[in-house]
Amino acid sequence: MEAPPFSQPFMYWVGMDLDPAISAAEKEELSEFYSRVHGREVVATNPGFVGMSRYELLDPDPRGGVHTGPRWLAAYELENEAAAATYAQRNDGPAEGRPSYSTWPDSRQYTSIVWRMLWHQIATRGTATEPPDSIFMVGMNVPPETDAAGLAEFNTFYTNTHVPEVMEYGGYARGTRLELHRAFAHPEPGCPRFCAIYEADAATTAQRNERRSNRAPLSSGPPTWEQHDTIWRLVYKRI
Fold first, then answer.
1. What DSSP string runs through 73-122?
2. Domain enclosing residue 119, as ranges
3. pLDDT the model gives residue 1
């Protein structure tokens, strides 16, 4: 059921938090149901959905608060814009037009949905032949007054300079840039416009803190880059 992670032009993300009161057994039951039942049903019943991978938060944003990401992340792969449009239309339409899914375990009461977003891919660097052991995700906004020229400078620098530098210091196999297509749910101050995902193997995941502390300074960019706002920096471990 699974397409290679981050290989399709569109993605749908669902971020879920867990109540601390959930037991280890209930968490395991819920995770198994999500992976083996619910995730498969979402892929099977939504046209153009071609795969799903799941992740658990490993390193939250050290700033905490509104910058903290959800405990679980499900990333669905969509083959084209038509699939994204169909999903959005179903979401906005009457309930009877949406797919029916199997009943969740009772442990569902310990969960809450905090992220639901559609993204489209705008650039990628590097290659990956295996699913990542972990992913480093950075969400950011450009200043609200940014014009077309400033945005072009931002994107050129981000894709051609910043992403390769982060990949080099972090030992990442691939870096993928996404732009928000639509946000259905995200805590305030809202979903970032851009996201970069850096894929790590097991050795790189284990060495992430050492690599961060020893990295060289990153290049300065154009004014729009220097004024960007980073909403979250998160590391997720593949489930």
1. EEEEEESSHHHHHHHHHHHHS-GGGSPP-PPPPGGGGGEEEEEEEEEEEE
2. 10-238
3. 46
